[in-house]
């Protein structure tokens, strides 16, 4: 009888693990292959070879690019090199990526930049908010951009218990922002377990020096976050749910759910075109290939444009898709006056004419 019970228990455990494994493969889109969508006029950006995870563009065409992310379990072509922020002037005919100097007093050696967001202050000062993972922790670094000498002056480091596993941010003031935590846990093993079990414990947090609070919860893995041009709505990508959530922002900074748009790809960062309000995203068609990096089975790239997300039938266009032979693991797509800049988690960056 004892043996029968043991066999039964092992059988049940195996069935549960098998079921969770299948669910995880679904969330990672593990069997999807990408149908190419070509853009005729693209070139790789010189000097960017180990990631361009997130991009934000100022109204004057200056694009900030975060590079050199170290993220647990994620591939990295140069794990010993610290991260950096590049600048590209998209007004120029043939823009180059220039590394921004960072002011003294900031620990460059442990710099591991992730999501970024710009904010223009009342006196036209430009602030750059950067999610950082020094020593595998999460902080948000606030810099002031100095255009005269292409440098970033470090203003402060934000740390908070509610900012435990930060992926992306959107600045809403000179020292306030919304942030996504892509996992509940920050320990690598527990993070993996959380993903494996399919827990929906990931959230969105509002931060200001006066108040810090959870404003949305229940995501598999909240990733990219951004704001509509009229500043009424916040968009959140749930990468493991293949969806974009639209949330209404209230005067007290709370968010309420408006709608969810289901797609068939793992959405990473979100960029909002300030003129049209269109949402552009860098996506991972197959998350398994991204996590288990192999040169024989490269992670692909895919760019979507979502128009009229608030309408009953938003238009979703696959603008670019490629199997990884050119660009591996696209994580962001940002536009400026007919140009498209596509960034990746750990690979290169592609600049295209639309
Ligand atoms: C990727 O796409 C390119 C261009 O379409 C093609 O030449 C190449 O064989 C593809 N690679 C794989 C591994 O499918």
From TrEMBL:
<keyword id="KW-0732">Signal</keyword>
<protein>
    <recommendedName>
        <fullName>Paraoxonase</fullName>
        <ecNumber>3.1.1.2</ecNumber>
    </recommendedName>
</protein>
<dbReference type="InterPro" id="IPR008364">
    <property type="entry name" value="Paraoxonase2"/>
</dbReference>
<keyword id="KW-0479">Metal-binding</keyword>
<keyword id="KW-0378">Hydrolase</keyword>
<dbReference type="InterPro" id="IPR011042">
    <property type="entry name" value="6-blade_b-propeller_TolB-like"/>
</dbReference>
<keyword id="KW-0106">Calcium</keyword>
<dbReference type="Pfam" id="PF01731">
    <property type="entry name" value="Arylesterase"/>
</dbReference>
<keyword id="KW-0325">Glycoprotein</keyword>
<keyword id="KW-1015">Disulfide bond</keyword>
<comment type="similarity">
    <text>Belongs to the paraoxonase family.</text>
</comment>
<dbReference type="InterPro" id="IPR002640">
    <property type="entry name" value="Arylesterase"/>
</dbReference>
<dbReference type="InterPro" id="IPR051288">
    <property type="entry name" value="Serum_paraoxonase/arylesterase"/>
</dbReference>
């Amino acid at each position: 009888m004892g043996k029968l019970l043991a066999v039964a228990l092992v059988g049940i455990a195996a069935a549960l693990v098998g079921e969770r494994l299948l669910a995880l493969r679904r969330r990672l889109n593990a069997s999807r292959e990408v149908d190419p969508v070509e853009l005729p006029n693209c070139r790789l950006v010189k000097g960017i070879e180990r990631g361009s995870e997130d991009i934000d563009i100022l109204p004057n065409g200056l694009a900030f690019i975060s590079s050199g992310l170290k993220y647990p379990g994620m591939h990295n072509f140069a794990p010993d090199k610290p991260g950096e922020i590049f600048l590209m002037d998209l007004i120029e005919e043939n823009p180059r990526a220039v590394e921004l100097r960072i002011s003294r007093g900031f620990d460059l050696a442990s710099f591991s930049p992730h999501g970024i967001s710009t904010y223009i202050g009342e006196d036209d000062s430009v602030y750059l908010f950067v999610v950082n993972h020094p020593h595998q922790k999460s902080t948000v670094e606030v810099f002031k951009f100095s255009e005269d000498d292409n440098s970033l002056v470090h203003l402060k480091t934000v740390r908070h218990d509610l900012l435990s596993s930060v992926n992306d941010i959107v600045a809403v003031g000179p020292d306030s922002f919304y942030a996504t935590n892509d996992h509940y846990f920050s320990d690598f093993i527990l993070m993996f377990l959380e993903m494996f079990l399919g827990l929906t414990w990931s959230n969105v947090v509002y931060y200001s020096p006066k108040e810090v609070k959870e404003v949305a919860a229940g995501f598999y893995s909240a990733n990219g976050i951004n704001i509509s041009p009229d500043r009424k709505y916040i968009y959140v990508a749930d990468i493991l749910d293949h969806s974009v959530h639209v949330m209404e922002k209230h005067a007290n900074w709370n968010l309420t759910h408006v709608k969810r748009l289901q797609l068939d790809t793992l959405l990473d960062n979100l960029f909002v075109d300030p003129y049209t309000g269109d949402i552009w995203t860098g996506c991972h068609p197959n998350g398994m290939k991204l996590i288990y990096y192999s040169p024989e089975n490269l992670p692909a790239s895919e760019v979507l444009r979502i128009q009229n997300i608030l309408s009953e039938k938003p238009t979703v266009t696959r603008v670019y898709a490629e199997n990884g032979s050119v660009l591996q693991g696209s994580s962001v797509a940002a536009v400026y006056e007919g140009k498209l800049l596509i960034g990746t988690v750990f690979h290169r960056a592609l600049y295209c004419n639309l």
